[in-house]
Structures are given as C-alpha cells and as structure tokens.
Amino acid sequence: MSLWMADALGRAPMAAPKDWRARLRDWADEVELVPDLAERVGSLTWFRGLFTCFGLCATALYLSPGFQPIPGLPGARLDDAHYDEVRSQMMTPLALGADSGRHMGATDAVQPLRETPERPQIELSAQIGSSDTLGRALSRAGVSSGDVATIAAMVGGDISDGVKPGTALDIILGRRVSRDRPRPLDKLAFRARLDLALELTRAGGVLSVKRIPIRVDNTPLRIQGVVGDSIYRSARAAGAPPKAVQAFLRVIAGQVDLGGIGAGDRYDIVTEYRRAETGDVEVGDLLYAGLKRARGKSVDMLKWTRDGRTEWFEASGVGERRGVLSAPVAGRMSSGYGQRRHPILGYTRMHAGIDFAARYGSPIYAVTDGVVAFAGRHGGHGNYVRIQHGGGLATGYAHMSRIAAAPGQRVRRGQVIGYVGSTGLSTGPHLHYELYRNGATVNPLSVKFTTTAQLAGAELAAFRARLAQYQGLRVGIHEAFAQKAAAAPAAAGK
Predict the structure, then answer these.
(1) Would residue 409 be called left, alpha or beta, if left means φ above 0 and alpha means ψ between -120 and 50 degrees?
(2) Which of 143, 154, 302, 344 is the right S-S partner for 138, CB 3.0 to 4.6 Å?
(3) In terms of domains, do 239 and 163 share one?
(4) Are residues 141 and 238 in the same domain?
(5) What is the pLDDT of residues 35-53, one digit of tens each?
(6) Rounded CA gap, 357 and 428, in Å?
(7) How many CB atoms lie under 10 A from the CB of residue 304?
C-alpha cells in the first residue's frame, strides 16, 4: 500500500511516520550538540558543547595506542675487522683523532714509540704587530732570549727607528740539544727598511748577518685631476694615497672654505713617494698643494724648512701669508659671539666665544703657533685647553672629550690638541672656541693675522726653484690610468 493515502472525503493527504534516522537528525538539529563555543558563553547550550568537546578528547586519548616508539629490527653486528675499517673512514674531526682514507686501524702488531722523534728544523712565519718590537715578535715565535739579545746587538743600528708594523719575519729554528732547552735560531730574514733587507744565518754555532741593499727611487709623486662630486673621492679615484689626500685637505682648508670647492676645479698634489725595486712603496709627507678654481681664489702652497722649522708658504714668492685664524675644527658655526639665552642655565648671559657643531671625537686643531698655558678640567668648560700666542693673544678650546696637549708644550698651527666632546655645561658634542686679548675675551671673527716668511736672496731663489721642480714633475702613473678610464666612456659615446 502506498505510504500516502487520500481521505475519501477529499481531505489533504497525511504524511507517513518518519524512520529513526530522520527523527535522530531532527533531534540533533534541535539539541545542537556541537555549538560554536565562541558564542553565547555561559549558556546551557555553551556548557553542553564544552562537555561534548571534553568527552571527545577523553575518548580519543583513551583509544590512542600510546606514545611509545614502535620497535624495529636490530642492526647487524659488525665484527672487529669490519668495525675497524668503518671507524677509519668516519667523518670524525681530526682533533678527535680521526683517520683519512681507506686505512686499517692499528693492531697489536704496532708498538708505540718510547720517545717521539723531533723534527730537525721548524720553519715559522711571524709578523711585527702594531706597537710591537722585533724582540717581542721573536720571543713569541719561540726564539731563545739569548738569541734575541744577540740579534738586537747585531742589527740595532739598522733598525734604530724600529721595524715597520706588518713586516714579515721568516724564521727557521734548528735542532735543540735536549728537550729542556729552546731551539737555536738557524735563520732569520726580514725587511729592515724599504732600502735594506737582512738575513741572519748560523754557521758553526755562530750567527752572522748579511745586509742586502735595495734600490729605491725617491722621485716625488704628482697627481692632478678634476674635482667631481667630492674632492676626496676624486683624488682617491686618481690614485692619491689616503694619507696624502688628508694632508692636502688640511692645508687647503687653511686658505679656502672646503665647502666652496665645486665640480670643475682642478687639484694638484705632490707628495714624498719612495718606490723600491721589489715593488714596495712608502708614502711620505705632502710637499705641494695646489687648487685651481673656476671661480674664487686659487691656492698654491709649498712646504719649506727654514732654521729647522717647517711651514707652508704661498707660492707667490712675496714671502708673506695673510688670512684669518685657521678653523679649529671641521664643522659649521652654530652659535656666535654675544648675548644669548643659555640652553642649560635658562637665562640670558654673555656668550664669550663661538660654537662649532661637529661630530663627537672630531680632531681639534691649534689655530696658530703657541705654547699651551692650561690643559685640564676647567669648570663649566669641561676639558679645556688654553694656548698663548704672544702679543697678548690667547685662544681657548672647551668641552673636549679628550685632551691631546700638555701644559708647557709648544704647538704649531694645525696640530691636534684634543677631540670634540660634551663635557662641562654642554647639551651635545661641539667645540666652544674663545679668543683672548690681554686676558679679556673678544670676538674671534674680528682678529686677523699676518705671517711674514722673510724669504729673500738665495733662499727665495731656492724656494722658487723647488716650486718649479714640483710643478714640472710628470704626472704619476695612477693619473694616467685615471685619464684613460675617463676618456673611454667619452670615446664610446662618439
């Protein structure tokens, strides 16, 4: 019979009774066994869902097989011969006694030596460190104190100025008499100077020294070029040594503002440069600094020694150098001379100097020659240096992080006397610079100096001859490479 029956009177058909699966689905939808636990927190439905979650978790843990590892088959046991061969090929670090290659391990047939034989000679390579001496370097290498004293006596005159840091030492130590005695020095070879190499050898138990002269070319190095975005980068790209470029900038900074040097200006650098036939070079002091500017003052400065005193002179030959005091630090002036509101004390008072904003640790230079009258802690000035220059003039440098001058020391223009800091009454790293006239402070920007060189006669002629010699030098090989490199892109663009 059909599940649907129609009433004889024409009424709507009646639904057949549901089976148990349909009734279970309806009950589950009504009861909501797995509600969302993030909604209706604390309600009866939420607690029912929580208990359901705990029940399922407990059932899963109860039915789980456990966390114990599943046992496997044991590995095959190796006999002694196979184990010994495998051990010799393991990737064990050498420090733990590993072998290399397919070697068999030692057996009972191998008898250990009662005494390990010594090597007849030991060859070493050492190096002179910074602030090091030849004697200390040899002692670290294992040379006996007696041999070190003998070497010092034999070569002391050749290394009176010390051995240059980084110098390589080739050492050979011989066989020692007994194990409680140091090995004797059989041979020592090193470069004493750019123009001299030394070899010490032992023959018949006695050390002897052989001096090997090295030819050296002392022609100064001249480098010219055009300033690009930076005069320092341009000079370094042309092959100028860093030491020469730094000295060049210090000299030029005393004559013109470095910030005013622009692209298109030409620089000219002549520096001491020693070339050995072995290829080694040694950069010396700057000799000539020239700057040809498209706009503004050009500079020609020549180093000249007179009466044992070395100074920089203008190349004009008039024997006179004019200008304001050189800048005491590489930085911008951040505060001028006069009345101002003190940034720490909070009231207006006299600012008896000028401030230069500079990086912490920047070197501070003496603006001109003089004698250090004071160097130490000085109240609100912090670390402070005062220099007497004669004629009633003196300069003061305050807030230093470190002082590099001592009372009574004679300093020259451009000499480092300290480093920028923020000691005393200071809100940040800077240099407070003061100028005194007869003990009273004056505006440092109001004082100018004139230095007379007093070159005349034969000395002036020698000065001009030296200048002509430097200006006639051939440009260094580095500059030739730089010119070729600069011309290559231009030729490619044609």
Answers:
(1) beta
(2) 143
(3) no
(4) no
(5) 788 888 888 888 888 888 8
(6) 9
(7) 19
